[in-house]
Amino acid sequence: MRYEPVFYREYSPSPELAPYVRCYAQWQYNLDEKVCLPGEQTPFGCPYLTVNYRGKVGAEVPPFENKDFTNNHIAGQLLKHYHNYHSGNVGFFGIFFYPTSVHYLFREEMRVFTQKAWDIETMNGASGRRLVDRITSTDSSGEMIDAAEQFLKEKLQNASPKTDEIDQAAFIIRKNPTIALDKVGQHLRISSRSLRRRFKEKVGIGPKYYLRICRFHQALRLSYQYPDADLHDLSFLSGYYDQSHFMKDFGVFTGKTPYDYFKRNNRSPELGGILR
Question: What is the pTM of this model?
Answer without folding.
Answer: 0.89
